[in-house]
Amino acid sequence: MEKAEVSESAKAKADTKRTPDGLPVHSFTTLLSDLATLTLNEVTLPGSPDHAFPLMAKPTELQSRAFELLDIDPAKDVAM
Fold it and tell me: Where are the domains of the chain?
């Protein structure tokens, strides 16, 4: 059986450690670790300690792209 030929795109990703759109290349495990850093915080203000509201951190470019590819809107799809 012949070895599969490596595409130019795959060679470029291996050389640069970047995707064609400039994002860092991840394994599944490291991508999950990166996505897990997106936080949902419960915020209270000093003048209203009895009233809290959820505030999501701004996703990184990589997180935004991954959620876009997964058709997930973290601001909408998370239970608050």
Answer: 8-72
What is the helix (H) or strand (E) element at residue 9, kind and residue range?
Answer: helix 8-16
Angle between helices 61-69 and 28-35 (to 10 degrees): 110
pLDDT in tens, 17-44: 998 889 999 999 999 999 999 998 999 9
Helix (H, G, I), strand (E, B) or coil at 30: helix
Q: Looking only at Cα atoms, what is the longest distance across the chain?
A: 71
With b meaning 16 or more CB within 10 Å and e meaning fewer, what string describes 3-34? eeeeeeeeeeeeeeeeeeeeeeebeeeeeeee
pLDDT of residue 60: 94
Predicted local distance difference test score (pLDDT) of residue 9: 87
